[in-house]
Structure formats: C-alpha cells, structure tokens
User: What shape does this take?
Amino acid sequence: MTRQGKRGQRETPVFDIVPILEEFGAEIPHRGSGTWLKMKCPFHEDSAPSATVSFQANRFHCWVGCTDRAEDAIGLLMLYGDQSDFQSALAEAERITGTSGIPVRGERKRSSGVFGRSWNF
Ligand SMILES: [Zn+2]
Assistant: This one.
C-alpha cells in the first residue's frame, strides 16, 4: 500500500459510504427519493433490512446495535475495519474509494495538496 504522508490534516474528509459498505459485502439499495433508505446490515446476520443508509449524509446506521449512531465511512472502518485507529481507517477509506475524500463544503482551509499524489488503480 503506497500512501503519501498526510499528517497535519485537521478535518476528517468525507468518503462515499457506498464503496465502503460494498467492501463489507452489503447490498446497496437503489437510490430513492427518501433521505434514509433501508438496507440489510452487512455487520450481522440480517434477514430483514434493519439498517438505514443516507447517500446524502454518507452515513450508515444499524438499528439493532452494530452502530451506536449513524456512522460515516471512517467510523465504520474504525468499528469493522482491519484496525480500529483513525489513521488506519483513513488509509483504508482512501484505498477502498481510490480518493482522498470528498472536500467538505464551505470554507476550504487547505488548498488541495494533490501534487505528487500517486493514484494506484
Ligand atoms: Zn447490524
């Protein structure tokens, strides 16, 4: 795994939740009109959809306890990824999505430091 050092990043980047959930074997529901869509939870034996996902908020929540709250991609990886620390989850999210996250809307504190970045597709 090649990863450029990205220390000093203050904000948590937002990652698309869909490829993260797919990595865990989830069936992604069709994008509907609702904000929160029901889906089967990939983190427990789920016969009936007992989890919800929001593509808008990029968050996932399992109502029977796999998550305490609606988690984002990093939160899910910290709970269910290979390692539970933040930096590992961040690296895993970058690997899975092939991006360095979706820029947080609003103020941009850091200019996009994409120079010399290697994309390993
Ligand atoms: Zn669950």
